[in-house]
Amino acid sequence: MTGTYINMATVLAGTTVGVCLGTRLPERIRTTVLHGLGLLTILIGLQMALETKNILIVLGAILLGGVLGEAMRITEGLERLGSTLQALLSRGRSRTFGEAFVTSSLVFCIGPMAILGSIEDGLTGDYRLLSIKALLDGFASIAFSAALGWGVALSAVTLLAYQGGITLFANVLSRILTEPMIVEMTATGGLLILGIGLKLLELKDIRLAGFLPALVIAPLIVWAIPWVKGLF
Asked: Where are its TM segments located (predicted)?
């Protein structure tokens, strides 16, 4: 769990710095920073998505995950959580508290570094990979919070639940998540990252939270393919 705690600390520190700095920055600069992050996010998403070895797996995961996510009303649940916290903590910023929470949580948690780093931390106690990720997330949280506000800090809780959960169950997950599973999960996450980039550039407001189940469905499809082939 050491690596996750370090990651949480850098996000909280980066958020504080970003909010304090953001109040002194002109709106045009904050907007430019946010758009720059959007461009970089699209590049990262493309790199991740192109790692897929079978585009049909990603397609199936996205479609099934989207249907399941909408049936579970994940987006509405996160929006209600964000609205409640906004009423308690928001300082009247132009961006919603919930948007900051959802966007930063997706950016910080989706990707191979979170998965592989947490597994390595849980199995061997080696948290170097998560330490590198923590530095990246810390710098990103400065830029995000300067534009979106305090909601970015709440993503530290998401990090604890997501990375901490993987670390605690690393022995089990290491037997389940094979390399092909991680590849397709990463590619599926890459598509969601692309959606985040489009949202940051204010081109399209996609209900990204509704697609989160796709990250679970992708490795399940990889697991099911050999079993299905064996039936024929």
From this structure: 6-25, 32-49, 55-75, 96-119, 139-162, 182-200, 206-228
Q: Measured between alpha carbons, how far is residue 87 from residues 95, 99, 134, 208, 224 in Å? A: 13, 14, 29, 23, 44
Tens of pLDDT along the chain (232 residues)?
888 999 999 999 988 988 887 667 677 876 787 788 788 878 888 988 998 999 999 999 999 999 999 999 988 887 776 566 556 655 555 456 777 787 788 778 866 578 767 877 886 777 877 887 888 788 888 878 887 788 888 889 989 998 999 889 776 766 777 889 888 988 888 898 888 788 878 898 888 888 989 988 999 999 999 988 877 7
Q: How many domains does the chain have?
A: 1
| Residue (of 70, 18, 44) closest to 192 by Cα position | 44
Does the predicted model carry a pTM greater than 0.85? Answer: no
Q: Which residue range(s) make up the domain with 157?
A: 2-229
DSSP string, 49-107: HTT-S-HHHHHHHHHHHHHHHHHHTHHHHHHHHHHHHHHHH----SS-HHHHHHHHHHH
Pick from 41, 208, 26: nearest CA to 136? 41
Closest to 12 (Cα-Cα) out of 161, 150, 130, 106: 150
